[in-house]
Design a protein that fits this description.
It is a single chain. This protein has one helix spanning 61-74; strands at residues 2-15, 22-34, 38-40, 43-45, 50-56, 77-86, 89-100. The protein is mostly beta strands.
């Protein structure tokens, strides 16, 4: 799946907001998709440009390092994402790999 990559994030720690310490972890990427017009009934909303979206990725330092290397070298760029079913929720996909789209 080709997308315009904005950023990647991965983190873990211990949150104590609710009093009891709870471990947390996350890993995701942000990307751009073209805006789409919304036309339904009496509504006609025209849109142009791009809309930011996000998707989870596997919690893997090596994968995060690939995203970091790509963004450090290229900034905002087009990448090809490899998706796989999320083991925690099989109705969703997560990013399992990434490669730079050669211009």
């Amino acid at each position: 799946m080709k997308v315009i990559l904005l950023s990647a994030a991965m983190g873990r720690g211990v949150s104590s907001k609710s009093g009891a310490a709870k471990p947390y972890s996350f890993s995701s990427i942000s990307y751009l998709v073209p805006e789409q017009d919304y036309i339904q009934g009496d509504h006609n909303i025209q849109k142009c440009g791009f809309e930011p979206k996000s998707v989870e990725m596997t919690e893997d330092q090596t994968l995060y390092n690939k995203f970091k290397q790509i963004t450090d070298a290229n900034g905002i760029c087009e990448v090809d994402l490899v998706l796989q079913p999320d083991p925690r929720n099989m109705s969703r996909n997560i990013v399992a790999d990434v490669s730079l789209v050669k211009q």
